[in-house]
Design brief:
Blueprint: H1 5-28, E1 32-39, E2 49-54, H2 57-65, H3 68-82, H4 90-93, E3 94-98, H5 99-106, H6 110-115, E4 125-129
Parallel strand pairs: 2-3
Antiparallel strand pairs: 1-2, 1-4
Amino acid sequence: MKLNKTTQKIDNNVCKALKLACEDFTSEVDGFCWLTHRANYTNFPASLVVTCVFDIDAEVLAAKEQKVDDHLRDVIQKQLLKVGIVLKNVRHNVHLDSEESCLRDHNGQWPERLKLRVTKQKPTQSKQFGR
């Protein structure tokens, strides 16, 4: 789907913010690989879904147990705020997942897997960072 100028500017700002967060995570978070986002810009920012991807399920569990997921959400929220995007409930917008789960449940097909997180929100735009 082609975005209009205003929506393209919003998406560019989201990409800019997430790219900075991704760069931080890659160097400081064990097991973190990459992140991606999807959004329905007619219901933005409520529809924004950011997925932080780790190598294996155990790393996702460890991140949650050690509250690293809270740190990831905090950094993402701060980066988005810098470009003027306010999330009401960052827990609703940011999720953790793993390459292992995608391979097991969706044969490594991330577009199929990510569709599950964005029901009733088409059309969507998706960008990946850190891959």
